[in-house]
Design goal:
Elements (H helix, E strand, L loop, with lengths): L3 E4 L3 H13 L3 E7 L6 H5 L2 E6 L10 H10 L4 E3 L9 H9 L3 E2 L4 H8 L1 H10 L15 H11 L3 E9 L2 E6 L5 H16 L4 E5 L5 E9 L5 E13 L2 E7 L6 H17 L4 E9 L5 E7 L6 H8 L3 H9 L14 E8 L1 E2 L5 E2 L2 E2 L2 E3 L6 E5 L6 E2 L6 E9 L2 H14 L1 E3 L5 H7 L3 H4 L17
Parallel strand pairs: 1-2, 1-4, 2-3, 4-5
Antiparallel strand pairs: 6-7, 6-8, 9-10, 9-12, 10-11, 11-14, 12-13, 14-21, 15-16, 17-20, 18-22, 19-21
């Protein structure tokens, strides 16, 4: 087992990893930028190393600084969390070259599954249902027109290196393709340094349902059931739940089997997520694979009583998995609390938190790195907390979430707490009647 793990991340996920490491008797090293010096992950790690100024390009994305921090602290493993370098094959390879275990996918696996066009080809070869679309990267606008004509409009063009909704455009008809093609490539090139695009048939009114998988170094994989991530704004998830209110026992079995087949076909090692689009007739299609821990992993942990971070560490240390598939025994909902103003088009709201009262009670979990007096920097993603409620039924989980949100006071900044409180009363949400287009018609009540 590892003696010391460096967490190459910040905020709540860094603190989350530190907590499991402490329970396992493993020493931890936090890295931080100058603007994160007062974050809780820095305070609770055994050691902390400053790796640069505020901009992530000069700190959390600076591979040489992170490797240097690992070497000077004698860390024998690095946990990348999510975002930043978690799906960077170059970083995974550099860790290998320095004799440091990367607690995540191998560079070969990241290259195979991190590139969405390659991942789709891999899944087709494995017999996993995929959305009709281009075979690999589109070489030109002319080819894009040809593929769109073959599969029929509407279509979705996507950046092959994309994530977080960037480099994605819906194209409803042929005369819109050139405009969206140019803007998507420009956005992808700026965000990822890669403007490669591919195309898929646009599935109308889909659910976004993902299956959590874990694979070990012996070629065996299992699934830990599904999460419904359909409540999104600009392809960014806002809230998630498990089990999905749209799921049937038959669909869960078929999607679970497809996810395990996908993972075992590539001999996947570590925790990963197979993301699917599910149409109104419950046909499901592979969308992408995330070769890392997900933001929304806590709801899976809550309904099956399973520590995914612990499992990541065990698998990385060469421990085999049981091979057992898991089904949800409870219902859990996660609300992402962002420093954003939901009454002003979700505009970011960095600044100093003057007052904070956290909710509590049975079935309430709060993952956060902030506290009263903490200043939220403007350099990073706006998520500051994840509020999770767990209960016997979906109705009870919603009622518990409403109560927890009413208890959750954050002053000094704007947050998305009012949005989530309103969402929990929305008739369509309460009925489980929602798709990825839910937010297009959602309106905040007046203050």
């Amino acid at each position: 087992m590892f003696k010391k793990i460096l967490i190459a991340n910040r905020g709540e996920i860094a603190l989350r990893v530190i907590r499991t490491c402490k329970e396992m008797g493993i020493k931890t090293v936090a890295v931080y930028s100058t603007v994160d010096a007062d974050s809780l992950h820095v305070k609770f790690a055994d050691e902390a190393v400053c790796i640069g100024p505020g901009p992530s390009s000069e700190s959390y994305l600076k591979m040489s600084h992170i490797i240097a921090a690992a070497e000077i602290t004698n860390a024998d493993a690095i946990h990348p969390g999510y975002g930043f370098l978690s799906e960077n094959s170059k970083f995974s390879r550099i860790c290998q070259e320095h004799g440091i275990k990367f607690i995540g996918a191998s560079p070969e696996m990241i290259d195979k599954m991190g590139d969405k066009a390659t991942a789709k080809a891999t899944m087709i070869a494995a017999g996993v249902p995929c959305v009709p679309g281009s075979e690999g990267i589109l070489e030109s606008l002319e080819q894009a027109h040809e593929v769109a004509k073959q599969i029929g409009y509407p279509v979705m063009i996507k950046a092959t290196a994309g994530g977080g909704g960037r480099g994605m455009r819906e194209v409803m008809k042929a005369d819109e393709l050139e405009k969206h093609w140019n803007s998507a490539r420009q956005e992808a090139g700026a965000a990822f340094g890669n403007d490669g695009m591919y195309m898929e048939k646009l599935i109308l009114e889909p659910r976004h349902i993902e299956i959590q998988v874990v694979g070990d170094s012996f070629g065996k994989a299992c699934h830990l059931s599904e999460r419904d991530c359909s409540i999104q704004r600009r392809h960014q998830k806002l809230t998630e739940e498990t089990p999905s209110p749209f799921m049937t026992d038959d669909l869960r079995q078929r999607m679970g089997e497809a996810a395990v087949k996908a993972a075992e076909s590539i001999k996947y090692e570590g925790a990963g997520t197979i993301e699917f689009l599910v149409d109104k007739d419950r046909n499901f299609y592979f969308m992408e694979m995330n070769t890392r821990i997900q933001v929304e992993h806590p709801i899976t942990e809550q309904v099956i009583d399973y520590d995914l971070i612990r499992e990541q560490i065990l698998v990385a240390a060469g421990v085999p998995i049981s091979g057992k598939n898991y089904l949800p025994k409870l219902h859990a909902i996660e609300c992402r609390i962002n420093a954003e103003d939901p009454y002003n088009d979700f505009r970011p709201s960095p600044g100093k938190i003057t007052t904070l009262h956290s909710p509590g009670g049975h079935g309430v979990r709060l993952d956060t790195h902030v506290y009263a007096g903490y200043t939220i920097p403007s350099n990073y993603d706006s998520m500051i907390a994840k509020l999770i409620t767990t209960a016997q039924t979906r109705e009870e989980a919603i009622a518990k979430m409403k109560r927890a949100l009413d208890e959750f006071y954050i002053e000094g900044i704007k947050t998305t707490i009012p949005f989530h409180r309103q969402l929990m009363d929305d008739p369509n949400y309460v009925a489980g009647n929602y798709t990825t287009s839910f937010m297009e018609s959602f309106k905040m009540n007046e203050l």
